[in-house]
Amino acid sequence: MEPHLAYLDAGSGSLIVQAIVAGTAGVVVAAKMYWRRITGMFRRKTPAEQTPAEHTPAEQTPAAATADKD
Amino acid sequence: MTPEPTRPHAEPGSFRDPQTRVFHADGEVLRGLGAQAAQDWKALRTSDFFARAQADGTLTKTDEVDRELPGEPGTWSATLRHEPIPFVSHPYEWSHAMRQDAARLHLRLLQDALAAGFTMKDGSAYNLQWRGAAPEFIDVGSFEPAKPGEPWAGYRQFCQTLLYPLMLQAHLDFDPHPLLRAQIDGVEPAQMRRLLGGTKRLAAGVLKHVHLHDSIQSRNADRSTGAVREQLRDAGFNAELVAAAVRAIAKLVDKLDWAPPATHWGGYRETCSYSADDRAAKQRFVDAALDAAEAKDLVLDLGANDGIFSRQAAAKAGYVVAVEADPAVVDTLYRQLRTEGAKRILPIVMDLADPSPGGGWASTERAGFAARAAKADVALALAVVHHLAIGRNVPLPRIVDWLAGCGRTVVVEFVHADDPMARKLLANKPDGLFPDYHVDTFVRLLGERFDIARRETLPGGSRTLIAGVRRD
After folding, report:
1. Which DSSP string do the residues of B74-94 spell out, in sequence order?
2. What is the residue range of A27's domain?
3. pLDDT band (50, 70, 90) for residue B3
4. Cβ atoms of residues B132 and B343 within 8 Å
5. CB-based contact (8 Å) between B143 and chain A?
6. Mind listing the pLDDT tens digit for each residue in A11-52?
7. Does the CB of A62 have a partner CB in chain B at under 8 Å?
8. CB distance A53–B218 less than 8 Å?
9. DSSP assignment of B247-313, as one string?
10. What sign does the CA torsion over B103, B128, B262, B339 have?
11. Chain B nearest-CA residue for A3
12. Strand B118-120 relative to strand B143-145: parallel, antiparallel, unpaired?
């Protein structure tokens, strides 16, 4: 994956809102993303599945970290 | 012999994107591009999108030049030159219709860019400037080739600096200037949520862009944008959705109209205490003073009202900035100028007794009004000194000092204490509070800083015009 060169903090929540603002198709994408987060919480990750996320905040909780990726 | 070119100096307001930086040199505006930005530029400059935006003047005229810029060797891979903006203004100096048009242009360019396979790195109101009543997108460094499944990074910034201020004015009739002036990054979703509760939740765009935005933002505060980007992409986010979101925002911006209260506008002409003869004499005086001015590339019309003297000055000067404190009056003037396609008069909203301070990092990221006014050649201060001296208690010597910083040539109208307008202001202050308020005192003080070129009392007898040239 290409690195994100964006200089601006786009706001993680704002990115999700943008999907919803896009209309029905966007709401479906957001719903799918939330669903995967929920199901992801009940699934153990193998180390190979874990891609290091850019700019991962140091204070990130372990629960949030596992929910980051399905 | 050609003079040695001055070393380019960095624009204090350009540092947030490390890949690009603006410099000034000998009146030229230059932009350094880092390796990645130079690659993006190469793609941009050959696109039809760029050619169209250059041709219609919506994107600042730009070419590539061979110029050295300050910085460690290898910092800048390319240098661009932009057509300078005659007078830089800030979003807290724009009227509602100006902000709405600026927002429209930002979104229109983004839509065109997306269609051409590009996106924008940001969404700031500070990406826009004005050439008269025409907005212009100045941040050429903002465009980059779009990546598949990548959302528009500037959505939040667009909300905070353009969409929310428009909503405040349109939905609440609340002037967003104080908030924008105090917060360089604009209004936060959480602040908006507190302002737009109750039935205002149902106003156009509020539920999604404000309430939902704030709540999703706080729920995702501990997730990195990189992680969320990836999750969205995995869930099927794509370029069509970015385009659909931008279309929806553009539609919303079109709905966020605000009609300036009619009373303000009609009121100005009615409250003028001078006759047609006075007006004609005043116009002749202003014309003569402008004709005599050595330089008149930039004229400030301080206290411009409906802009009648700005228009008159524009016939003789290069560029006129019409400064007026009443947002409704500026909004009406802007709409008129926009209809006329005027490109040499820029109306701005500002209280002269409380001008825009420097803002942002080190208070220099956004230049204060005084720093920008210092570049003006001529200042018109017509029927404004009494508002400052009586209405705002500013001592006459300080008004003269201030005028000296607003132009080499000044044209001042001094309204005598017995004029109906001055009497109206004086009625709100205790008797004898301003014993020095007299035309002779004012002319004497003005004479300490300026050579008085002409002086004329209008036929009505209660107003004196004075033209002076600053002794440098």
Report:
1. TS-SEEEEEPPPSS---GGGS
2. 12-67
3. low
4. yes
5. no
6. 999 999 999 999 999 999 999 999 999 998 777 655 555 555
7. no
8. no
9. HHHHHHHHH---PPPHHHHHHHHHH--S-HHHHHHHHHHHHHHHHH-S--SEEEEET-TTSHHHHHH
10. negative
11. B226
12. antiparallel
Task: Residue A12: list chain B partners with CB under 8 A.
Answer: 217, 220-221, 223-225, 227-228
Which residues, at least 6 apart from B4, have a Cβ–Cβ distance to it below 8 Å? none
Using a CB-CB cut-off of 8 Å, the residues of chain B touching A24 are: none
Residue A54 maps to a domain: yes
218-237 in B: which are within 8 Å (CB) of A? Answer: 218-232, 234-237
β-strand pairing of B134-137 with B9-10? unpaired
Q: Strand B20-25 relative to strand B9-10: parallel, antiparallel, unpaired?
A: antiparallel
Instruction: Classify residue A5: in a domain, yes or no.
Output: no
Give B113's strand partners: none
Beta bridge partners of residue B467, listed in sequence order: B411, B454
| Cα end-to-end span (Å), chain A | 17
Task: Report B:423-452 residues touching A (Cβ under 8 A).
Answer: none
Q: Does the structure show a pLDDT above 60 at B127? A: yes
Amino acid present at B217: Q
Instruction: Specify the 3-state DSSP secondary structure of B431.
Output: coil
Are B164 and B210 in contact, with CB atoms under 8 Å apart? yes
Specify the CATH architecture of the domain B262-470: 3-Layer(aba) Sandwich (3.40)
pLDDT tens track for B394-438: 999 999 999 999 999 999 999 999 999 999 999 998 888 899 999
| % of chain B residues with pLDDT over 90 | 93
What chain A residue is nearest to B242 in terms of C-alpha separation?
A: A22
CB contact under 8 A, B245 and A19: yes
Note whether B425 and B353 are within 8 A (CB): no
**Nearest-CA distance A36 → chain B (Å):** 8
- Chain A nearest CA to B339, separation (Å): 32
3-state DSSP call for residue B341?
A: coil
pLDDT at B4 over 90: no
What ipTM is given for this predicted complex?
A: 0.89
Closest CB to A12: pick one of B144, B152, B225: B225
Tokens of A57: 């905040």
Contact status of A51 with chain B (Cβ, < 8 Å): yes
User: What's the domain count of chain A?
Assistant: 1
pLDDT at A67 over 80: no
